[in-house]
């Protein structure tokens, strides 16, 4: 328990992996967790578990690529729980492949979800946060710092998330902005890779993986700091990865 004040926290991509575990950890810290993604049944199961454990949670079906839907979720959540104090832009996908495979649909999808989805989130909360304060936490990646073969576009989207976070932090005096850059973490992230050779390599590469709690605890820490303390960025990797 690191939290000192209960906050209204909206987490995108909370139906699995890092987002799902973050919702559970933040609920245990006493926050009201609003979980959003496309797979509503998974979100409902999550909110039920959180409520059974004594927490407060609500599920919102959301495709982060839709500006209108994102704004509607924030409006609905604010009416019921008050303004969103913390937005965690976590939804993302990682269909890796060499560029020569020309999987342009997958490139576009990554840009839509990983970059435009983050911008849609920022657009939905920033006006109110600039008035009353708030915290935007963007989940980037170690791929926002280093580029690997097969991950040119994925890393491009994560470099963009990091750049957007940095720029926003420099412009605002009211809103805390944190970038979280995980190394390999157990989740469903590799499931979207369709290129067979890359899939086989990825399975091996992802053997040394952190539990999602490692990222959730870092997020919990960043939120728990006083309002005048901004945690700019955390890079969190498995010790054994040796990088
Ligand atoms: N795991 C890692 O090794 C790792 C490392 C570095 C960074 N990250 C980043 O961490 C974040 C979370 O990924 P994860 O590892 O937890 O993978 P994950 O288990 O695959 O979770 C991804 C989440 O994103 C959601 N999502 C995908 N497209 C969406 C859309 N259009 N609208 C709303 N939600 C959408 C998925 O939910 P629905 O399908 O239900 O919509 C799912 O809940 C991603 O941004 C990823 O890039 C992960």
Q: Give me the Rg, rounded.
A: 17 Å
Present as ligands are: NADP nicotinamide-adenine-dinucleotide phosphate
How many distinct folded domains? 1
Mean pLDDT: 96
Could you give the distance between the termini? 30 Å
Q: List how many beta strands DSSP finds.
A: 7
CATH class: Alpha Beta
Largest sheet: 7 strands, parallel
User: How would you spell out the order of helices and strands?
Assistant: EHEHEHEHEHEHHE
Strand proportion: 15-25%
CATH-scheme architecture = 3-Layer(aba) Sandwich
- Overall body shape: globular
Low-confidence stretches: none
Going by CATH, the homologous superfamily would be: NAD(P)-binding Rossmann-like Domain
Q: Assign a percent range to the helix content.
A: 40-55%
Structural class: alpha/beta
CATH topology: Rossmann fold
Q: Output the number of helix runs.
A: 7
The strand line-up of the biggest sheet is 3-2-1-4-5-6-7
What does this structure look like?
- The two termini are 30 Å apart.
- β5 (134-139), α5 (152-171) and β6 form a beta-alpha-beta unit.
- The chain has helices spanning 17-28, 40-52, 67-81, 104-132, 152-171, 196-205, 212-224, and strands at 8-12, 32-37, 56-61, 86-89, 134-139, 175-182, 233-236.
- The protein has a single domain (8-235), classed as NAD(P)-binding Rossmann-like Domain (Rossmann fold), CATH 3.40.50.
- The longest helix is centred in the middle third of the chain and has 29 residues, at 104-132.
- The chain has seven helices and seven strands, in the order βαβαβαβαβαβααβ.
- The chain is of the alpha/beta class and 243 residues long.
- The radius of gyration is 17 Å and the shape is globular.
- Strands 3-2-1-4-5-6-7 form a seven-stranded parallel β-sheet, sandwiched between helices.
């Amino acid at each position: 328990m690191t939290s000192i004040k209960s906050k209204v926290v909206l987490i995108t991509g909370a139906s699995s992996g890092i987002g799902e575990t973050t919702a559970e950890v933040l609920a245990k810290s006493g926050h009201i967790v609003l979980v959003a993604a496309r797979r509503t049944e998974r979100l409902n199961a999550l909110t039920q578990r959180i409520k059974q454990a004594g927490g407060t949670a609500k599920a919102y079906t959301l495709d982060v690529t839709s500006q209108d839907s994102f704004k509607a979720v924030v409006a609905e959540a604010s009416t019921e729980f008050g303004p969103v104090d913390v937005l965690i832009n976590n939804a993302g996908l990682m269909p890796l492949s060499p560029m020569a495979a020309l999987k342009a649909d997958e490139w576009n999808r990554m840009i839509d979800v990983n970059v435009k989805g983050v911008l849609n989130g920022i657009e939905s909360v920033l006006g109110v946060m600039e008035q009353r304060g708030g915290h935007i936490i963007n989940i980037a990646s170690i791929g926002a710092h280093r580029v690997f073969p097969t991950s040119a576009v994925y890393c491009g989207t994560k470099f963009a998330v990091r750049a957007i976070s940095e720029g926003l932090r420099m412009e605002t005096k009211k809103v805390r902005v944190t970038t979280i850059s995980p190394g390999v973490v157990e989740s469903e992230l590799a499931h979207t890779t369709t290129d067979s050779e890359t899939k086989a390599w990825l399975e091996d590469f992802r053997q040394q993986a952190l539990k999602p709690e490692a990222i959730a605890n870092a997020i919990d820490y960043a939120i728990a700091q006083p309002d005048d303390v901004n945690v700019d960025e955390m890079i969190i990797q498995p010790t054994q990865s040796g990088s």
